[in-house]
Amino acid sequence: MTAQILDGKIISAEIVSDVRAKVDARVASGLRAPALAVILLGSDPASQVYVGNKKRQCANAGIRSIDIDLPADTSEADLLALVARFNQDDEIDGILVQLPLPKHINAEKVIELIDPVKDVDGFHPYNIGRLALKMPLLRPCTPRGVMTLLERTGIDIAGKDAVIVGASNIVGRPQALELLLARATVTICHSKTRDLENKVRGADIVVAGVGIPHFVKGDWIKAGAIVIDVGINRLQNGKLCGDVEFDVAKEKAAWITPVPGGVGLMTVATLMQNTFDACVNRAD
Q1: What are the phi and psi torsion angles at 25 (to 5°)?
Q2: Is residue 77 located within the same domain as residue 149?
Q3: Is 69 tagged catalytic?
Q4: Are strands 4-5 and 255-256 parallel, antiparallel or unpaired?
Q5: What are the pLDDT tens digits along the chain (284 aa)?
Q6: 222 catalytic per annotation
Q7: Is 168 annotated as a binding residue?
């Protein structure tokens, strides 16, 4: 058995096209297009590529993008003042501060200052709390994108055993809440987890997000499982790979995401969804 590929390129394009149709209908009715403010500090290459992708998708979705590029030595006070200004700007629907931030800036303080109704990354404690209480408003982009991929398989997630490898605030923890909301039985694995291999072997759904190349071995995958690889790593030869040993895993899984071309594209497309949702929520 060779797994079917969950093609993030195709699915993300469909999502952005759907957002564009909604934006066009909104504008045709006399309302303004949604607006997203993206703040980037410094010149981290990965962050620059990611922000560049966000700008392109904003254009495709008909969302106005306000791009603020600041030097890496920007003070925390100046960054907080900028966020506060965008909070008060009624023409801005979403605020995104690209992570990671320079070490002299407290990222938690910045995230908590963003108005929860404009928190299109879905990282604010208010939005995470709503997700935990089964009342989601703005949902973290990557986990929401993963759920969209899972929906595209046509498989009912309810009752399935899901194992998440990685417990970060950006992916692992909110992903667990998303899967719980879908009525899966969830196990989160981390650096202190014992017998990781056997936990993965029993999983109907595996979500890997640890940032270590080929950390999840392909022969661990249960026959017929769904494998979602959130990791993206650059090898010494310059090639990109995920956290899952793809070539082996694809021979056992029923569905699998590629790297690149999988979850990363979904994250940006979901940001477009969140920005449109934030605009509508604020209007309501």
Answers
A1: -65, -40
A2: no
A3: no
A4: parallel
A5: 699 999 999 999 999 999 999 999 999 999 999 999 999 999 888 888 888 899 999 999 999 999 999 999 999 999 999 999 999 999 999 999 999 999 999 999 999 999 999 999 999 999 999 999 999 999 999 999 999 999 999 999 999 999 999 999 999 999 999 999 999 999 999 999 999 999 999 999 999 999 999 999 999 999 999 999 999 998 999 899 999 999 999 999 999 999 999 999 999 999 999 999 999 999 87
A6: no
A7: yes
For 223, how many CA atoms within 13 A lie in the half-sphere containing its CB? Answer: 1
**Alpha helices (runs of H) in the chain, residue ranges in sequence order:** 8-28, 45-61, 76-88, 107-113, 125-132, 141-152, 172-181, 196-201, 246-249, 263-283
Please state, in angstroms and rounded to a whole number, the distance separating the CA atoms of residues 241 and 256.
Answer: 14
10, 77, 129, 144 from 139: Cα distances, Å: 22, 27, 10, 6
- Neighbouring CB atoms inside 10 A of 66's CB total 16
Selecting among 22, 54, 118, 250, the annotated active-site residue is 54
Which CATH number does the domain housing residue 245 bear? 3.40.50.720
Q: Please say whether the beta carbons of 117 and 131 come within 8 A.
A: no
Residues 178, 242 within the same domain: yes
Respond yes or no: is residue 236 known to be catalytic. no
Q: How many domains is the chain partitioned into structurally?
A: 2
The parent domain of residue 62 ranges over 30-115
Residue 192 belongs to some domain of the structure: yes
The pair of structure tokens assigned to 101 is: 């931030």
Catalytic residue chosen out of the listed positions 121, 204, 229, 277? 121
Buried b (16+ CB within 10 A) or exposed e, 151-165: eeeeeebeebbbbbb
**Annotated binding residue 166:** yes
Give me the amino acid identity at 87.
N
